[in-house]
């Protein structure tokens, strides 16, 4: 597979080009079960070889471990290859409830001093003097009318510390970023948009297109469930965060709905050429506002499979229409629904 086969899309109206499938680096920190750094490096190298040029990480992924593994791997690449790779990371809110509640003050969670200190650590971990994209890892609508943390990021951009400003949406209120996009305060938003979570198609994604805001889609595979490889009785190890994500009867309920998606693909004749994971990724890519879909890649085999999905033809309109019926208003897993 040549690099040219993976489509590149601009990250917003004036953003740098990113591969249609990006590298999600959460598992590199070890929260998806045991992960050797050598596996992580091999996965990164394979993904880059196949044309993936966008990597998304965060300090919470193994207390900086994901960032440092990425930095070490990229430092060994030829300069011309390294310069084509874009790395996004995040600043989490300081100590307090996750996600921030309506009663949290930005002064307590994202003070200027805290943001500046955290950004310096991100620069150190990633061995760079400028971050391609710095995202606030969560947000609350309570701060929209006085979004001082974003003004701090604007100053850091003016100082050459960051290139692009972003926010990762809180799961329970993804639409909180709509006002921020319209006010021109963010360059990029990272959202959940998948076969189950389709609410962003109502307003968030159209507003992103209208304002030229870049869109990164996360959780396109619903933390692995939409690959179809987990049966109803599957249990994740205690050191895998999915043991709580799919706690109780959630895995069984999810597996039943995944089977219905598989039946739709079969009926439309797509089950032979598209795996469930392929179809899930292509669905997440289907809205024109989406710049890239980040997918977890723990080893070279996963990197190859996910990169290949980027080269497949788009799903036809009639199949997309059918798949929309799988929207699932399940609330937020983290809230115990």
From TrEMBL:
SUPFAM superfamilies: NAD(P)-linked oxidoreductase (SSF51430)
InterPro entries assigned to the protein according to its UniProt record, in alphabetical order: AKR, NAD(P)_OxRdtase_dom_sf, NADP_OxRdtase_dom
CDD domains per record: AKR_AKR11C1
Every NADP-dependent oxidoreductase domain range: 21-325
Pfam name, any one: Aldo_ket_red
Name of the molecule in the record: Predicted oxidoreductase
Species name: Neorhodopirellula lusitana
């Amino acid at each position: 597979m040549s690099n040219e086969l993976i489509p590149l899309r601009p990250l917003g109206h004036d953003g740098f080009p990113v591969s249609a499938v990006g590298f999600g680096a959460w598992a590199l920190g070890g929260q998806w079960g045991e992960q050797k750094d050598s596996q992580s490096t091999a996965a990164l190298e394979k993904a880059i070889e196949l044309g993936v040029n966008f990597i998304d990480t965060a300090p919470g992924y193994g207390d900086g471990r994901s960032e440092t593994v990425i930095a070490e791997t990229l430092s060994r690449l030829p300069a011309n290859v390294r310069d084509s790779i874009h790395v996004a990371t995040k600043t989490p809110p300081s100590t307090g409830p996750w996600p921030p509640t309506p009663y949290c003050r930005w002064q307590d969670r994202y003070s200027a001093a805290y943001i500046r200190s955290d950004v310096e650590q991100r620069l150190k971990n990633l061995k760079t003097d400028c971050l391609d994209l710095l995202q606030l890892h969560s947000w609350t609508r309570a701060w929209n009318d006085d979004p001082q943390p974003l003004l701090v990021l604007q100053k850091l951009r003016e100082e050459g510390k960051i290139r692009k400003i972003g926010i990762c949406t809180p799961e329970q209120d993804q639409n909180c970023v709509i006002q921020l996009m319209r006010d021109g305060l963010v360059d990029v938003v990272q959202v959940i948009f998948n076969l189950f979570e389709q609410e962003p198609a109502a307003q968030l994604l159209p507003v992103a297109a209208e304002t030229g805001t870049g869109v990164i889609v996360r959780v396109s595979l619903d933390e692995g469930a939409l690959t179809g490889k987990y049966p109803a009785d599957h249990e994740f190890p205690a050191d895998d965060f999915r043991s709580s994500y799919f706690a109780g009867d959630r895995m069984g309920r999810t597996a039943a709905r995944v089977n219905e998606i598989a039946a739709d693909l079969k009926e439309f004749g797509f089950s032979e050429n598209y795996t469930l994971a392929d179809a899930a990724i292509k669905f997440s890519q289907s809205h024109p506002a989406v710049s890239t879909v980040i997918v977890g890649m723990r080893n070279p085999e996963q990197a190859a499979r996910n990169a290949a999905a980027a080269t497949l033809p788009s799903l036809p309109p009639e199949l997309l229409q059918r798949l929309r019926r799988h929207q699932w208003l399940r609330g937020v897993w983290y809230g115990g629904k």
